[in-house]
Design a protein that fits this description.
This protein is of the alpha+beta class. It is 23% helix and 26% strand. It has a three-stranded antiparallel sheet with strand order 3-6-7, with helices on one face.
Amino acid sequence: MSNYEDWLQDQAAPKKEQPALVVAPIRGVLPYTGARNPLTRSDTAKRVSVAIATPMTGGIRQVYHFDGESEYAVTLDALRSPELYGLEVQLAPVYYYCPRQKGVYPHHFDLRLTFRDGYRRAVFVRNATSLARRETQDEIDD
């Protein structure tokens, strides 16, 4: 082999865009119902998929997919509350007006928690580095 062929053989194959993983139906478990599937492949993010039962699902486990460990950690913390009634993840977008850019933009909340008294809370999960960025602060302000 030539030096070029040796070099070429040592190179990583170009990455192809892979579709998100789909969890096949599980007998006795409700399917995933999020608006988007976060189970794409990543070299850095650690996706989480889990089956959880809540009063909203009648005590039957349902599949939930999380974009990362932080979203899952927030969910585990919320599940500790006896007042939690239901959980929804990967919600459909909410559209908001951005006065700086004079347009309407989508925002996807990570979770929505429903409590026994009917109160619902949308949750936006970000790590400290992301929260410190000006773009994230602007989005929150909008």
